[in-house]
Amino acid sequence: MRGFRHWRWHLDEMNVKLNGEMVYLWQAVHHEGEVLESFITKARDNQAALTFMQKALKRHGSPHAITTDGLRSYRAAMNELGNAEKQEIGRWAKNRVENSHLPFRRRERAMFRFRRMKTLQKFASVHPNVHNHFSLERHLVDRQTFKERRSAALAEWQIIAS
Predict the structure, then answer these.
(1) Where's the DDE domain (predicted)?
(2) CA-CA distances (angstroms) from residue 31 to 36, 136, 161?
(3) Which of 33, 49, 56, 158 is least surrounded, with the fewest CB atoms within 10 Å of its CB?
């Protein structure tokens, strides 16, 4: 993944309730819709954005462009990292990352919210990887290809889980 400099990232933060208190889930999603990084903070400020971006850049390398919303914390963090020219802000440009929140919200409702920060961080880091593994984009392929990919994903999952 480090070799692909033409990748575009989409960054966003969302509110998550933790024992009635609001915390923030920061997510980085690449151009194909897979979640790269998830990070939980209590604050939604420059330091939180900087920590999140440093973590994502260290693990996945530097993308060609980073799409964000108009939150000033992103601009401040990008200036500090020296990526200010890579930032793109658009009204509907970050729909990719907004749609990546949906599976998380569905699972969150099924779990009846979260009670501890540690379990929320674990869930936020594991859930996207599992969802990416089993999200086979049924609408893009024919039935036979989908069945083959699903069988391969399940077989790989059984190897990993055992």
Answers:
(1) 7-135
(2) 10, 16, 28
(3) 158
